[in-house]
Write a structure and sequence with these properties.
Blueprint: E1 4-8, H1 13-25, E2 29-31, H2 32-38, E3 44-52, E4 55-56, E5 66-74, H3 80-89, E6 97-101, E7 103-104, H4 111-127, H5 132-140, E8 142-143, H6 151-160
Parallel strand pairs: 1-2, 1-3, 3-5, 5-6
Antiparallel strand pairs: 3-4, 7-8
The structure holds flavin mononucleotide.
Length: about 160
């Protein structure tokens, strides 16, 4: 039995997925900061977090729980090699990891992170002149959050219960 969803979100995409998943599975969702006071060590949980430079943010903070599945939120299009790299870099079991496409929200991005995204945008602009979608995301922002992106993950969680 999965007790709760724990999420870590900076600009809101991961939080949106946490809300949707919570409704679908009828379990509560908590921000990582409040999880410790709500969930016991070794409880079954689902962890959702965003990807920063190939790292799943704060994934080490949930090692005290039994993580049934990880939803990892990034801006790039889904790609098998990219997900395999994420799994290896972050030391996770592949079958537990599901990629959920988020986006870029320039209004909510702040400080260094905003600067990094702008720089990445400039680099991509030079090297991907014909990839309009990618250029648009990093120049103007975009959201790819959709309920259907959760389908595979939900099937996996239900089968594990
Ligand atoms: C500094 C920084 C680094 C990022 N690195 C990656 C990355 O390596 N791969 C990726 O797919 N997305 C990357 N992103 C995009 C975020 O993962 C994406 O904006 C995500 O939707 C953020 O989730 P949130 O809105 O819940 O904070 C990066 C964003 C920032 C600000």
């Amino acid at each position: 039995m999965v007790k709760a969803i724990i999420y870590n979100s900076q600009t809101g995409h991961t939080k949106q997925y946490a809300e949707m998943l919570s409704k679908k599975l009828e379990i509560p969702y908590y921000e990582l900061k409040e999880a410790k006071s709500r969930i016991n060590k070794n409880d079954n949980i689902i962890y959702l977090s965003w990807i920063c430079a190939g790292k799943i943010m704060k994934v080490n903070k949930v090692s005290r729980y039994n993580v049934i599945s990880y939803g990892v939120v990034g801006a790039f299009p889904e790609d098998e090699n990219y997900i395999n790299n994420l799994v290896t870099t972050n030391g996770l079991e592949k079958e537990k990891v599901f990629y959920l496409r988020g986006g870029i929200n320039f209004i909510k991005l702040k400080g260094v992170n905003k600067l990094i995204v702008k720089i990445v945008g400039k680099v991509l602009e030079k090297n991907n002149k014909d990839n309009e979608e990618l250029l648009k995301i990093f120049n103007e922002g975009a959201s790819f959050v959709e309920e259907k992106n959760l389908e595979k993950m939900i099937d996996y969680i239900k089968q594990e219960e």
